[in-house]
Amino acid sequence: VFTSGFTSVFTSGFTSGFTSVFTSVFTSVFTSVFTSVFTILVDGDGYINEFFVKFKEHFLQAGNAGVVNAARELSDSVNELMHLTIGAQADQCQAMVRIYANMLGLSRVLARAGLLVNDARSIALFSATFNRAQELFDFVDAADKKEGSDFKIREQFRLFVDLNQCRHIFLAGCHDTGFTSMLTPYKGRTYRITFIKAASFQRDFEDLDLPIKDLPSVFKSLPLNSTEPLDTAITKAVTTISGTTTPCKHYQKSPSKEPVVDELFKPVQITESFTGRPDELFSSRLPPLGVINSREYIPIDKEGQRLDTYALPPTQDAFDEYNSWAKKHEVVPVD
């Protein structure tokens, strides 16, 4: 009886403890592998202008750190919306941002508005820093083809809208009514889709009965100083560039003569003065130009071979200076 009871208690306790530990480990592994996300899809051709207006006002003085702060502001703003949607469960989710834009045309348009330097791909520095700001943040060049950004956003939307790990989709593309046909089957699904409003918001999206939210700390509701839609302006900018320059096969060179610098906006021009030796110091020691080909000015030996002017050997200090320079520039000596 004692043995039977002991075995029963031991087996029960072992099974209970093993089950508890196994459940805890499995839950931890499952949670780490299948972390839920909420996705923010941004059509950069229509929304980045407002983002840059806000960025210029609040984050410019911080340099590259300002781009990181802007990315964090976007993440925090959407996190607040997620808490309003699903409550405390939002703490278990990660923000995934996908921005698609025509960088060539967008850089040109933002330069005309005074938000970037006049360089064909001046926005590339911003996008690179933005990508490093958060693990799941991507600013992608959709190339200069028409509706390149629209195509990428549609496919990303179709991927995430039926994905169980995606808790919610925030769409920042309400300037383009072309998305309404894609969204019509999801009309009224307030638990799944939310629109991000901007200055170029189209009223057709209100008919889809989906939430429309503002992110005033990220997207300022002020359009660029232009009388035409940004998409049209970008298309014209690309046409202008491609019509005046011959692009490289792999990279569109800038028509601008400004240097590429590690700044988003116009750099401060610094002029340096340098005073060297006057030209007369050297020209006065040269023979007259009219007789420079005469043999009497060229020393030769008895065999008729030219004799070069004897030069004194360099000093030890000069040797040390040269060796230091050669080591720094990895100069390979030639025998």
Automatic annotation (TrEMBL):
<keyword id="KW-1133">Transmembrane helix</keyword>
<feature type="domain" description="DUF7923">
    <location>
        <begin position="39"/>
        <end position="219"/>
    </location>
</feature>
<feature type="transmembrane region" description="Helical">
    <location>
        <begin position="20"/>
        <end position="42"/>
    </location>
</feature>
<dbReference type="InterPro" id="IPR057683">
    <property type="entry name" value="DUF7923"/>
</dbReference>
<keyword id="KW-0812">Transmembrane</keyword>
<protein>
    <recommendedName>
        <fullName>DUF7923 domain-containing protein</fullName>
    </recommendedName>
</protein>
<dbReference type="Pfam" id="PF25540">
    <property type="entry name" value="DUF7923"/>
</dbReference>
<keyword id="KW-0472">Membrane</keyword>
